[in-house]
Amino acid sequence: MTPARGRGPGEGTHVSTGEPQARIPAYPGVERFVDAFDKLVVRPRRGRGRAPVVLLSEPDGGRAGCRIVAGLRSRLTGRHGRLAPHAYLTEAVGDPAVAPLELYEQIAYQLGESMPHGSGRLHLPSYRLLRAVVTAPAAGGLMERRPKELRDHCYAQHREVSGLAHGLWWLGGRDQANGGTLLELLWNFVAGPLFQRLPRALYGRRANRRMLGRARSGTRRWYAEWVRQQQGTPPADFFRSALDLVGGGPDGDPEQLDRILVHALLADLEAASRRRWYDPWRRRRVSRFVLLVEEAGPAESRVQRFLRELRSAMEDLQCTSVLAVAAGVRTLASRIPDIEAPGLAAAGAELEHIAQHGTPPGRPSGMVVPVAEGPEDDQAATYWLGRWPTLAPPAHRWGPGAEVAAALGAALLALVVTAGLVAGVPFGRGGPDPCLGSTFLGTDGQCVGVAERAESFDTKDGKRPLPDGERAVRDVLQRIERQNKAVERELAGRAPGDIRPEARTVVYFGPLSGGKDADDPVRGGTLAELRGLALAQSFVNAQALGSGERVPLRVLAANAGDRFQDAREVAHRIVELAARDRSIVGVLGFGQSRRRTYEAMRVFDEAGLPMVGTSGTSDELLAQGEHYYQTAPTNSRAGEVMAAFVRYAPMVAGRPAKGVRLVADPSDVYSAGLAAAFRAAYGEERTTTLLYTPADAPEPSTAPGPPAGTPVATLADLAREVCRAVAEEPGTAVVWAGRGSDLQLFLGELARGARACPKLSVLGGDDVTNALTEERRPWELFPGLDLYYVSHGRAPALSRESGEAAAFLAAYDRTYAKDHGARTGDMRQDAHVALAWDAMRYLAEGVDQAWRGTGGRDDRLDRRLLQAVLYQGLGGGGLDGATGWIDAHGAAGGGRLTGRKLIAVERGGPAGARTVLLCGAVARDDVRERWGSGPGRPCP
Length: 940
Known about the structure:
Elements: E1 5-6, E2 15-16, H1 30-42, E3 53-57, H2 64-75, E4 86-89, H3 102-113, H4 125-134, H5 146-161, H6 163-172, H7 182-212, E5 213-214, E6 219-220, H8 222-231, H9 238-241, H10 254-273, H11 280-283, E7 289-293, H12 302-317, E8 322-329, E9 339-340, H13 344-357, E10 366-370, H14 379-387, H15 400-422, E11 440-441, E12 447-451, H16 468-491, E13 504-510, H17 526-547, E14 553-559, H18 567-580, E15 584-589, H19 595-607, E16 611-613, E17 628-629, H20 635-648, E18 659-664, H21 669-682, E19 687-691, E20 710-711, H22 715-728, E21 732-736, H23 740-752, E22 760-764, H24 778-781, E23 785-791, H25 795-798, H26 803-816, H27 822-827, H28 831-853, H29 863-872, E24 879-881, E25 884-886, E26 903-908, E27 914-923, E28 926-928, E29 930-931, E30 937-938
Helix pairs in contact: 1-13, 4-5, 4-10, 5-6, 6-7, 10-12, 16-17, 17-26, 17-28, 18-19, 20-21, 22-23, 28-29
Region (Disordered): 1-24
InterPro entries: Peripla_BP_I
């Protein structure tokens, strides 16, 4: 239904009055479209990309699109206040008889009135300034005086909306005194220049800076760039250049008027969405500004012209703060290309992808979705709309006033503490930090931070005994330290004609300690990653120092604490070090997908440090910034592979599984994401999910979007529940989406009470490989275990097809040939080692190509140039790695990961691992499309 129309802030204004009661009709697929709409509206600014303008086309007439748009408006209005700022444009606003500026006045008025509680007032300075320009009377008189007259007119308009400017003008009184006492004469002599002419001059300077930018820094604002495109040269003075816009521009061109006003409006909305550290009201602006159009009309209508300029301006400004949906599109102009969606469900899928990954450069700025009147009783849509009847933006516990009070209190406390320190008052009871060098005491009781020497992670007394796992890590760190010194010795005192470049530094970011008194001193594949990193550094430097055509690399190790508990603080230390040391070009690691890992990645992204992942798989890793590149497959792809394997592979007594028990940790974003991906691919109705969170979990609260399931308090309860299910149905398989260290403990509990289920088939995620190098293997803990697990490329299985895999294995055997320990032999087949090798090789290749791009100018090689190379993609289309082909560029629609990255399922046992599923790119020209015996099945 069409919302009621009423009078707005001025004569001729048309807005909807009252609270909208429109309901979104339950058309097929509308629930996915609305869900994607909600995600785009509340998407955090840091992860936003440009959103296309959605055009609901009604080729056969009708009001279906109008009803959807009216329903979307009702979602943005809560019972006790607005949920997101929005403007709703009715048919009357697009009437050609209405004043040209009425449409913009409606948008500005409605957006300002719909600002959610606690988000402050919406100021649109650029739009208000240009509105004053285009409505100014035609200038006359000498040309030299016209810019000043235009400035005075704009300031007069500014005083109508600015209380401060109006008050200062009132204080200034009259410019010329006409009698009175001596005191009044003196006041009039001083007040006019002080309160009238000075603020007006400052207003002019501020307008120049806002519209043109700062000349000294060379930054040019959108208006200056727009004028340069129109006239060939950038303007030097705003009011002089704006004389061309008085009266709506030359000959009153309506398209030019729309173009300049749309740019100004979007620039203001983009600026209004940026957070300020001192402005708590700004921090509560968590939603996009939404523009809803009731009737777009034919191709040459007033509103369609506005929408075309809106789309172009959003692309020009890379605006990510506005989302527009227009209904009633009767015909489309062919001037601008569009994304064609066949229906609401397909449009929702496309918008959801855009919400997660953004819009690549060059992608059309509009999406056309045909809608038609039809049945409104789709069951899926009705159920979803009933569950989610309105938008649910993020909530804030404290209001802006409370935040200001807390900030003032914190500042006062800081002043008191500072004064106490100056006065010598001892505030702390503890002793000094026992850590060496630049490291500091972390949450886990160990020394964390970044260090050049392996011993820097020791305490000052040096008496702490090292467990076996930590001693093995120390050995690799010392190997890296020796390789760093070898590079420094080789490059020290070079001859003047030596063309070899200076070494660059890479930081490994991972958990180098497992916590004080922890049973597992190094969790999550850290030892495997460090070995692969050290082997790749040796390989890279041998080529670089021997040929002079590559860049040698140093490696610094950064301990992020037990399971990345101190990741954010350590990341800040690395950024501070990189600001002082220009040779630091990138960061490797992020092997565990945890919320603290994401916080650290955002710190690196803001500092412009390129990041290459070693073994992280969570889809959310790629949403933490444009500087991260992933070498491993994502959880969503692993979940699809696991679902296909469980559905078709004979993994339970020679047959496919008849039932599934999915085990996940809802507090762990890796586990929750992998479990959700498996459920989505395998089917929720066929999966029984058991939720278990370890007692020592570093993030005990539930991860965002956790899978639904039955909570289990202890591992003993989990073992009993699984055993009961297997006893009732021997064809039941366990899909383990948790960590490998927890699987070991689970199997121990199962072995103590497994009389009813002597055999068990388990399919685990890639983290299970970390349990295969422990002192006791999983099948030794539970002899009846039939274990399958996801692997991201086992080098021994690829050595015949991949020269890089063979080079990796040769390097591993040369280094560890004399180490006959079981852990070293099993780690040779661990994909974590090969992935770390590939990550180091991928980053090194990027550094080499960046250096060659400078023409051998060593002083021009820095992290910004490396980011440009990695984002555009390595020359040659990627890297033939030890774990398959890697091409993780971000340009031309690339998602900074390899689309068909190699993934495998291995069957483990005392006789060694055996590959039972292999899908993806072994090499650039060798892509495995099917798996299984005989003709096989298509790869997911």
